[in-house]
Amino acid sequence: MYQSDTIAAIATSMNSAGIGIIRVSGDESVSIVDKIFRGKQKLSECDTHTISYGHIYDGDDVVDEVMVLIMRAPRSYTTEDTIEIDCHGGILVMKKILKLVLKAGARHAQPGEFTKRAFLNGRIDLSEAEAVMDIISSDSELALKNSIKQLSGSLLKMISEMRDSILFETAFIESALDD
Question: How far is it, in rounded angstroms, from Cα 25 to Cα 30?
Fold first, then answer.
């Protein structure tokens, strides 16, 4: 399922703001957004990790002026082709662009599904996936600092060191019992 479908969601808060982001991830993300985006060139012709300026269209009607970021697999958060549409941050315009992306062939992402895909695709481990959720829900500087450490692999490193130590001691005990 995770390799065969393309998901989309609004990645920013659903409040009026200067900028809103709609994220699209999956094998068909570039072709799906190409159906509604018009810029200097088609997104399928653009290099990875580039930004294209243009407009989102609903048929012949302009919906919004946007910038589109292209991140091709495996060099993205989910390790899949990923598109981010940076639009104006009005609630109505973000919902309208998301609706167009869904109509063009994506499905609505479940909460946390981008991080779930990053985990399932081997981009992050379980402790890092938990750290992402902790960063999002941090309500103090200390909690944020600890979550960032966990995201950078500090918990995995500590667990690996303890595992190595336990394996060493177990091997020592087993060899002593053999004697």
Answer: 9
C-alpha distances in angstroms, 162 versus 75, 130, 157, 166, 169?
Answer: 31, 20, 9, 6, 11
**How far apart (Å, rounded) are the C-alpha atoms in residues 67 and 21?**
10
In whole angstroms, give the CA distance from residue 16 to residue 143. Answer: 27
Q: Looking at residue 27, what is its pLDDT?
A: 95
Query: Over 60: is that where the pLDDT of 1 sits?
Result: no
The Cα–Cα gap between 85 and 36 comes to 11
Residue 37: closest CA among 91, 86, 95, 76 = 86
List the 50-58 sheet strands across, edge first: 37-39, 50-58, 61-71, 82-89, 17-25, 7-10, 107-108
Segment holding 21, helix H or strand E:
strand 17-25
Q: At what angle do helices 154-178 and 141-151 cross, to 10 degrees?
A: 60
List, in sequence order, every residue forming a beta bridge with 10; answer none if it has no partner. Answer: 22
Is this model's pTM higher than 0.70 or not? Answer: yes
